[in-house]
Write a structure and sequence with these properties.
Chain lengths: 221, 233, 247
Amino acid sequence: MNVLLAVLRKDLLIEWRSRDRLVAMLVFAVLVVVVLYFAAPPGQEETARAHVPGLLWVAWVFATVLGLGRSFALELENDALSALALAPADRGWIFLGKALANVILVTTVQALSAVAFALAFGLDLWPVAGRLACLAVLGAIGLCSLGTLFSAMAIRTSNREVMLPLLMLPLMVPVLLGAVRCTQQLVATGELPWSPLQLLLVTDGVFLIISFLGFEYVLDE
Amino acid sequence: MSMAPPPQSRWHTATAVVLAVSAVAWIWLVWNAPVDSRQGEIGKILFVHPPAALGAYLGFILTGVGGALYLWRDDERFDHLAAAAAEVGVLFAVVMLLSGPIWAKGTWGKWWSWDLRLTLTLLLFFVYVAYLLLRSFTEGSDRVARFAAIYGIAGVAVIPLNYFAIDLAAGRSIHPENLGGDSLGAGMGWPFAMGLVTATAAFAFLLVRRIELGWLRSERARREALAGARGAS
Amino acid sequence: MNAAAEPGATPAIEARGLTRRFGPVVALRPLDLAVASGTTLAVLGPNGAGKSTLLRLLSGLARPSGGTLHFDGVGADRVGRRQRIGLIGHATFLYPALTARENLALAARLWKVADPEERASQLLDEQDLQAAADRPVGGFSRGMAQRVAIARALVHDPEILLLDEPFTGLDPTAADRLAGRLAAARGRRTSLLVSHDLARAASLADAALVLVRGEARALPTGALGSAELLGEAYREAVSALGSEGRA
């Protein structure tokens, strides 16, 4: 637990010093939606609006992949990762510290970009803001659990920039599907549907367990 | 880690014989099977597509199981099993993904539908393509094995989650339901069953050959390294 | 090979048949090693001989491909082993964006030291780094960063210290101070010193081991009398191991 907090604190401190991941992810998320908006046929603002929850999640997924790529790159300078691997604790806690730092980073990007989109598309998200935030966090946990594990693997491959999205995206469907369905219904009706939420929760749980246990093997040489 | 020759060498003769016999029986049965009155000849893809799907899923599950056993027992032979199962599984998945659209074009009138079951199977195919890429982009044989094992396990864990997702969209799927005992027409049961047997035999044969190949490769690498260490100054 | 091990006493570090392969490449051939508690073993050898591999195996960073490892007679417990060991590695293990103080406080938290901030401050004093304590390590010279790296490895006052070329980049004063500390800890701390500096090795070690292409040979204890004697024994062992390898 101490190890978790120490790693979390360290990652947030390093991010706070430079803020480069946060800015890059945020700009990227906004750009993705802007580009997708121009890809839609003109004169169909109403249909486009119905697609906003889906667009938003697509943007968040891509921004997360971008940010996670850097998560372990900062550990490789001076081989600082070895010092973490040497710490006398179950390495799962190191994983949780790093994953939690990533969840916080991703959630910040989600919050800021959601505000931008609500304003740009004229959506009134305020009444559902609390539940939307919960969904964003649940989605971020799903993305960042296996994502953090794969990021630790991808930096040790010869093709790291290509490898991370290739590893992550096909496995993120249950997270994406659950989160998008929940968000669509929430925005449209103000109600949270139970079964997609269940899918999201179960997926988060499964992904967390696999990553927690798998991290030990990833750090070994 | 044992250096004994792999116990599979006897197996590949056995699986080859079973494969040859069942393939002949299967082709004969399919040839003589009744033609579906609504679908016509193209309905006979029924005897190819589900067996290919069986091989694909068998491969993916064995990849995960082999990976888990490797992490647990730290025995390189389980890694050869996982790698072989992934490659053979991808091969069967290609047959499945090619035969499906041919049937769909004849029956639904279009090559592909963004049906959830189709889409998720396609994504699962990409999981194992990514698995093979991960193997080829990672250096150091035990690191490859460990990374691949974790990814293979994650891939298997996602299969039930994907089925949960299909459930969620129940009613929207146009893919035929998995066949029950009575959904096959008269005279179609035998060729269908023989298809499954043949696919299993083909899967076993290819798997065994691929495991042998993996074992021979690592054996050669070991011998070369030994010779290199002696020869270098 | 026994490094001044008293008969009957459990060695602090004991390896049997320790091997490491990277795929087909053998980095370390089956190695037997025993380091008695409180003594220092010098590990010498040309570049690429497997010295760093040995340290990474002992520290638990790398998994052995074969063989067993015991610390004070205790085997498998990986977490407990990491608690005992300090490693000064080839790289500094420091985060360039964090200050020296933050880097050390982080290490103190990871090793569950009671008062991390206090411990960091104390280590900065010892390494004479207070003036630079609150500057990011990224701007440090190699020698200054190395001093922080040394402090980092000592954060939990480890029973066993593994040192990989610890004198790299240090100015003569800092190098002498490190040597003084290592000498003072003799008898109390078990150390394994990888170095190309034969004079330092001769003065600090109780026993020496030469590694060539993954193969090890112990040097006679008498060779540690002076740098000249050690150099002679070292060259002899290297050429013997080299010709054996070719046969």
